[in-house]
Specification:
Structural class: alpha/beta
Largest sheet: 7 strands, parallel
Radius of gyration: 20 Å
Strand order of the largest sheet: 3-2-1-4-5-9-14
Helix content: 25-40%
Number of strands: 17
Number of helices: 10
Order of helices and strands: EHEEHEHEEEHEHEEHEEEHEEHEEHH
Strand content: 15-25%
């Protein structure tokens, strides 16, 4: 199949392109090369079309003959300040809407969208006495006192975590998260209006070679790794017990190829969302410890906090395994230890 990949020079997009080529598919590579994610070396790639997804209306000729689009282009990260809001709305919301309109004009009606776990906001919380409960907010006073766990509104006990499936209510907490929910909603509307078929892949914490270094828009694994390169201890917020799922970029790329093939052959519903995760939950403190052990530098658990941070969000891998045939091949313990030596951008 012929696949157009947006964000093709990016961390995940480049891995998707590699996986597609290895699987024997033809790839059309497009990237805007925004400075938050790229340096001047990306501009030297002769096979890359430098185009901005917000202007996708001019791409109709490029899209003709394409079987399916892999939409990886996005402004990523939690957002540093409120001033970032227009950038997220522009690159992610407007960019996706422009791409979908251009695809329809070109007669391309198959899409795989890079979404994110951030659409869920808080994860699933469990009380030992009352079962699943909606997590109440954490006040600044509670966090300043070093009490980081959500407490059951019924009995006051600390809440544990459970696995979030794809039917969980969406509750975006950041500008990035709001933009990813919007991307999914635009895609769902496009599927109904244009007679298309699409899959949204909700990536959990992706890491691996070619992550951008030294940027607040990058993931926590790259931020820890950059600190270690400076011979500084990784700074862990709260008590480090926040639970996440870290998935290696090669597994994410493989999930994309499976989704692209399924959506092209019609082996999916009209619009489906899948968690893309390792299935091996790990705490943020353990992530820092694994990286630090491989580097000989112990992390520092600071007790500091950021208002609005999510305490726990851990994915269920069941639907992707059952319907896409995807199961991650790299555990966080193995992949993070290798990540210490992986090249960053």
């Amino acid at each position: 199949m012929r696949v157009l990949v947006t964000g093709a020079a990016g961390f995940i997009g480049s891995a998707v392109c590699d996986e597609l080529v290895d699987a024997g598919h033809e790839v059309v590579r497009v990237d805007a090369l925004i400075p938050q994610a790229h340096d001047e070396t990306s501009e030297q790639d002769a096979d890359l079309q430098r185009l901005d997804v917000r202007g996708a209306g001019s791409w109709v000729g490029l899209l003709r003959g394409v079987d399916v689009v892999s939409h990886q282009a996005a402004m990523v990260g939690a957002g540093v300040t409120v001033a970032d809001l227009p950038a997220y709305a522009g690159h992610n919301d407007l960019g996706t809407a422009a791409l979908l309109a251009a695809m329809h004009e070109a007669g391309v009606h198959r899409l795989v969208l890079a979404s994110s776990m951030v659409v869920y906001g808080e994860g699933l919380y469990l009380c030992p006495d009352h079962g699943p409960v909606a997590a109440p907010g954490r006040s600044d006073e509670q966090l300043e006192a070093g009490s980081f766990d959500h407490q059951c509104p019924g009995c006051g006990k600390n809440l544990g975590w459970g696995l979030v499936d794809e039917d969980t209510r969406l509750d975006p907490r950041t500008s990035y998260a709001a933009s990813k929910v919007a991307q999914e909603h635009y895609t769902s509307a496009w599927v109904r209006q244009a007679g298309g078929r699409a899959v949204a892949l909700r990536y959990h914490n992706v890491y691996g070679p070619r992550m951008p270094r030294d940027t607040p828009y990058s993931g926590v694994a790259a931020i820890f790794r950059s600190a270690l390169e400076r011979q500084e201890p990784p700074q862990v917020y709260e008590d480090g017990a926040q639970m996440r799922d870290f998935v290696h970029v090669t597994d994410v790329a493989r999930a994309n190829v499976l989704a692209l093939e399924a959506v092209t052959t019609g082996d999916t519903d009209r619009f489906e969302a899948y968690n893309v995760c390792s299935g091996h939950p790990v705490s943020i403190r353990d992530v820092a410890t694994i990286l630090g052990t491989a580097s000989g530098i112990d992390p520092e658990v600071t007790g500091q906090f950021r208002p609005g941070d999510v305490r726990h969000v851990v994915a269920s891998p069941a639907r992707a395994r059952e319907r896409l045939g995807f199961a991650a091949g790299v555990t966080p313990e193995d992949g993070l230890a290798r990540f210490v030596h992986d090249p960053l951008r």
